[in-house]
């Protein structure tokens, strides 16, 4: 069967169960689906977060995610994957991102999901601005995210 790859950048929320059902519908060759849901949390130990605003470069964001999705498909024996990334104003408790990977076996699905999330955290063309009672600031890249992504670099 042909692998199903879905990439969406959207303002609207998503339903995780509905997306898993769409990825697996009619498939008998899938033995594992790994899902990662990124959810907006209320701050990082500092001031309470009112909202997170995500901006992107339209067209480029989808193309870059697709490029990395294709890399994941070539590195692991996946039967499908879904990446949905929201943009716009998101408040604590709301979904931000969904990565689904499907394979015959769990190890490939787990590794591909980690690979895709590490990419999304470090290199995808998205910009985050946090709003709190003190104002709003752009979120800087974190060294720990770069270190996590570095493990996937091929020599």
Task: Describe the protein.
It is a single chain. By secondary structure, the protein is α+β, with helices and mostly antiparallel strands. It has a single domain, classed as Molybdopterin biosynthesis MoaE subunit (Aldehyde Oxidoreductase, domain 3). Helix content is 32%, strand content 35%. The strands form two sheets. Strands 1-4-6-2 form a four-stranded mixed sheet, with helices on both faces. Strands 5-3-7-8 form a four-stranded antiparallel sheet, with no helix packed on it. Strand 7 (126-132) and strand 8 (135-138) form a beta hairpin. It is globular and about 50 Å long. The mean pLDDT is 89.
Percent helix range: 25-40%
Proper CATH architecture: Alpha-Beta Complex
Termini gap: 32 Å
The H-level CATH homologous superfamily, spelled out, is Molybdopterin biosynthesis MoaE subunit
In round numbers, the mean pLDDT is: 89
Major sheet characteristics: 4 strands, mixed
